[in-house]
Design a protein that fits this description.
The chain is mostly helical. The chain has helices at about 1-15, 20, 25-70, 80-85, 95-130, 140-160, 170-195, 200-225, 225-235, 245-265, 265-275, 275-280, 285-310, 315-325, 330-355, 365-390. This is Iron complex transport system permease protein.
């Protein structure tokens, strides 16, 4: 009996053993929970504030870089005169109106659109394949476009004047159509294979192999091409934001807009894929559909840029990493607009550098983008190696 009373007394003094006491958590537990909640809210608030500041800075920087791209070149135009032309007024020198509206404005718009397109496409591919070195051209879209242009050069290049840089009309249209058809053919092959492949890693390997195969066909075509035509293809392959006319932009702009719209619609699925395919599947995500939509969106963006500007290198790899470092977040609700703005800003900066302001010389755009992108890719590899060593 004494033992029975002793156990009852112990139970009443123990809050865990007492049913009534179990419903009232200790004060220390409530305090720690409230502190954790307040801490998480504070961190989220700081992240939102940082994102707002970074995105605002990117918008301001993009506007400034765009105006700079219109003002500088072989002939510098005062900023106030540049603004006068943009708002429709006549500048002091009438020639500046032609220079800005017919040459520099289309070039700047092309650079901004191409940078935004390649940056967002690279972000999509890196997330889909979970590979920091994936880029918009990983699946061979660029090689397909190059094959189309090489076919034009080898078939009807010199005699019909089809391949002439910056020429409007049927010649320019023929090159763009050939590049678009070649890119679409490779994309179609990838999408067919994607229906039979479950692993994105396998799909990436297939894309790399397909890229190499199509590139070998391009080399074969150029082997049978007259040397002067092969030189023209080589110049095209170096990339350029120049040569696009207002009529080209009327086609290029809506295509890029559709691709960017698709990217915005896939923000939530891409966030789910960050945690792995198994987790995304448990959330009810249809992986095959997401994969196809992402591949189509990224390929449309990359293919359109290649068709109008040539294969522009490194922007698709480097820009997403720059945006991640600036935003300090992996959330695609922030990364997609951040990458879009960063890509446009970086492409405009590369375009300005390629013009060699104050001189009559022009560098191929791939020379500048490679000098920018190569150090970033090397840094990514070194960070990945350091992270792997730390995990081991």
């Amino acid at each position: 009996m004494t033992a029975l009373f002793r156990s009852a007394a112990e139970a009443s003094s123990n809050p865990v053993a007492s049913p009534g006491a179990a419903t009232t958590p200790p004060a220390t537990s409530v305090t720690s929970t409230s502190r954790a909640t307040a801490g998480s809210q504070s961190v989220a608030g700081r992240r939102r504030a940082r994102a707002a500041v970074v995105l605002g800075g990117l918008v301001a920087g993009l506007v400034a870089m765009f105006l700079l791209a219109l003002a500088v070149g072989s002939v510098s135009i005062p900023l106030d005169e540049t603004l006068r032309v943009l708002v429709g007024n006549e500048p002091h020198d009438p020639r500046w109106t032609v220079v800005i509206r017919e040459i520099r404005l289309p070039r700047a718009l092309t650079a901004a659109l191409a940078g935004a397109a390649l940056g967002v496409a690279g972000l999509q591919m890196q997330t889909l394949f979970r590979n920091p070195l994936a880029d918009p051209y990983s699946l061979g879209v660029s090689s397909g476009a190059s094959f189309g242009v090489a076919a034009v050069v080898a078939g009807v290049g010199g005699s019909a004047g089809v391949f002439t840089a910056g020429v409007a009309g049927s010649g320019r249209f023929g090159v763009v159509v050939a590049a678009a058809v070649g890119a679409a053919a490779v994309l179609g092959a990838v999408l067919v294979l994607a229906q039979w492949v479950r692993s994105v890693v396998t799909l990436l390997v297939i894309g790399v192999i397909l890229n190499s195969a199509v590139s070998s066909l391009v080399s074969l075509l150029l082997t049978w091409t007259a040397p002067e035509r092969a030189v023209q293809y080589w110049i095209w392959s170096l990339g350029s934001f120049s040569g696009t006319s207002n009529s080209d932009l009327a086609v290029f702009t809506p295509i890029v807009g559709v691709g960017l719209g698709v990217a915005l619609l896939t923000v939530k699925p891409l966030n789910a894929l960050l945690l792995g395919e198994n987790y995304a599947r448990t959330l009810g995500l249809r992986l095959r559909r997401v994969r196809v939509v992402t591949l189509v969106g990224a390929s449309v963006l990359a293919g359109s840029v290649t068709a109008f500007c040539g294969p522009v290198a490194f922007l698709g790899i480097a820009v997403p990493h720059i945006a991640r470092r600036l935003l300090g977040s992996a959330d695609h609700r922030l990364l997609v607009p951040g990458t879009l703005l960063t890509g446009a800003l970086v492409a405009l900066a590369c375009s300005i550098a390629a013009q060699l302001p104050g001189t009559d010389q022009v560098l191929p755009i791939n020379v500048v983008t490679s000098l920018l992108g190569a150090p970033i890719v090397i840094a990514v590899l070194l960070r990945a190696r350091a992270a792997a060593a730390g995990a081991a």
